[in-house]
Design brief:
Elements: H1 3-13, H2 24-44, E1 51-53, E2 57-59, E3 65-66, E4 78-88, E5 95-96, E6 98-99, E7 117-121, E8 124-126, E9 134-142, H3 161-175, H4 180-204
Parallel strand pairs: 6-7
Antiparallel strand pairs: 1-9, 2-9, 3-8, 4-5, 4-9, 7-8
């Protein structure tokens, strides 16, 4: 769907189908706020659509940091790392690395053929220096939405329309129309729509055997009612 698909329904919910007061330009900042809230809720609940796997990253011998501005670089959409895997360049299979809070200082200056451990510090993966090139793959939680800048912008997410319509309309009612009563009513519908959307994804993943870990990076969805 496009941003216009959502914003047309928002205008209808606000009795302004002609987009006289609640124009596309006026709605866009609030649509992006609603998208950010939906994204954070999906990240927090580890909804499967946020799961991603990086391409193979070749880490040259001696390199100890992999960040967003290094070569190779972390995926730009990365929000939270779930697992890191490694293998010697040109060999198989991948072996899961062990995450630590800090790298062992007693190993500093000792060159190994593989990394073994990794830590997440200063928004970079830190490893001990290796004596040869290694490849890593990263399982991670990704961000979903780029900033929407025009009504023609595309929102590629199943079952997101209801929440985005109600939540965007609520924000517009409160901050453009200064109608808190209508905003409160619309937020009730937004929360119900969000519960349905999250519930569908959670139900679909119940058959998957996995060890859940608490999500640390995403902000919690506020209770708007």
């Amino acid at each position: 769907m496009t941003a216009a698909d959502v914003m047309n329904k928002v205008a209808a919910l606000l009795n302004d189908s002609a987009l006289t007061s609640f124009t596309y330009a006026a709605q866009l900042p609030y649509l992006n706020m609603a998208l950010a809230e939906l994204e954070e809720t999906f990240e927090q609940n580890n909804i499967p659509v946020t799961n991603a796997v990086s391409s193979a990253l070749t880490i040259p011998a001696g390199v100890t940091s992999i960040g967003f501005n290094t070569t190779p670089a972390l995926p730009i959409a990365l929000v939270e790392i779930q697992q890191v895997w490694e293998k010697l360049a040109g060999t198989d299979p991948y072996i899961q690395m062990t995450r630590l809070e800090f790298l062992p200082h007693y190993m500093e200056g000792t060159l190994l053929t593989n990394f073994i451990w990794w830590v997440w510090q200063e928004q970079e993966i830190k490893v001990l220096a290796s004596s040869q090139d290694n490849q890593i793959k990263i399982d991670y939680i990704k961000s979903l939405f780029p900033e929407i800048t025009a009504s023609t912008g595309t929102i590629n997410l199943i079952n997101s329309k209801s929440f985005l319509q109600y939540r965007t309309a609520a924000l517009c009612a409160q901050f453009i129309g200064e109608d808190k009563e209508r905003a409160d009513d619309l937020n009730v519908f937004a929360v119900m729509a969000l519960d349905r959307t999250v519930g569908i994804s959670v139900k679909g993943g119940q058959a998957i055997k996995t060890r859940r870990r608490p999500f640390r990076a995403g902000a919690k969805m506020r209770n708007y009612v």
